[in-house]
Amino acid sequence: MEYKIGLIRGDGIGPEIIEEAKKVLDTTADKYGHVFHYSDMLLGGVSIDATGLPLTDETIAEAKTCDAVLMGSIGGDAATSPWYRLEPSKRPEAGLLKIRSALGLFANLRPAYLYNELRKACPLRDEIIGDGFDMVIVRELTGGLYFGKRYTEEVDGKLTAVDTLTYNEDEIRRIARRAFEIAGKRRKKVTSVDKANVLDSSRLWRKITAEVAADYPEIELENMLVDNCAMQLVRDPAQFDVILTENMFGDILSDEASMVTGSIGMLSSASLNETSFGLYEPSHGSAPDIAGQGKANPIATILSAAMMLRYSLDLDQEADAIEGAVQKALTDGYRTPDIYTEGTKLVSTSEMGNCICGNL
Ligand code: IPM
Ligand code: MG
After folding, report:
1. Ligand 1 within 6 A of CB of 96
2. What domains sit in the chain, N to C, each tagged with a CATH number?
3. CA of 146 to the centre of ligand 1 (A)
4. What amino acid positions are annotated as catalytic residues?
5. What's the pTM value of the predicted model, to 2 decimals?
6. Share of the chain above pLDDT 70, in %
7. Who is most buried in 46, 147, 262, 328, counting CB within 10 A?
8. In this structure, are residues 297 and 352 in contact, taking their beta carbons and an 8 Å threshold?
């Protein structure tokens, strides 16, 4: 089959990790008789440099012609990059929020899985790790604080900033359904995370989630407060299967969940809309401090490409093959600096990509 894939290389380590993912995709296409046509699109700092805007209408229109979009990472060092002297709505991150909203990507899936080979990189004690853990965070991505009204004004002579957290029942229902569907294909447990002891939006979240749960009697629903969840993630991560949560809590908890797997350089993510279309990106940022040095771990992006084949192109076998090739590279002891431990083989970004291609 032929597919059109949008590529957003982005900033920092983005171009390097996308290059490796593209190698892996092309190797997979050759092996399974597919053709991937790529369309390069601008987003983030590179887009600001080229057009003055972090996201143009052209990029949005082009993304809509693709079967799926694979993205590297965007943004720079806020202390030194000129992009951060622009007003907030013109900075790289604003482009990312805008593309999520413009493409209706309300469902952000962030798997956090501990590879047995990386146990030593996991910051938790052995008895807490136990037999490992395997969870998916389902984060609502187009609502809440990220998209509520915000402004700064002077009130009684004091600068006062306002951000608003809004959710309506439809927004909660559609993301809750996604979480239950995903749990149905896994260990059949949804932990819905909120702050219902304080926030109205969380109380509505709990009510609607309970209604949705009634349609999925085979799935266990547990409610957990977000502060407790932050604690439970480091106390007993194995208790989680699917974590369902709103935008801001999901942002924070997904970084925490990725850290307990040992390296944020390993974790993929998918942002999906109501159709099969999705934007796939590593969970990590653009790491400008190591950009261009061949130190970046391309695995999160390669696993994001595998997710893209599975969710948007319906190519399960091909996705399995890529995940297997990544697993073998780890079993054979290859490590980029972020996951290196004594006794393993240190490789560069492109060597890791080549190694994974060789395993396909
Ligand atoms: C993420 C990132 C973004 C977010 C930033 C870059 C706006 O942290 O994808 O988790 O907060 O959603
Ligand atoms: Mg984040």
Report:
1. yes
2. 1-108+278-360 (3.40.718.10), 123-260 (3.40.718.10)
3. 10
4. 146, 195, 227, 251, 255
5. 0.95
6. 100
7. 262
8. yes
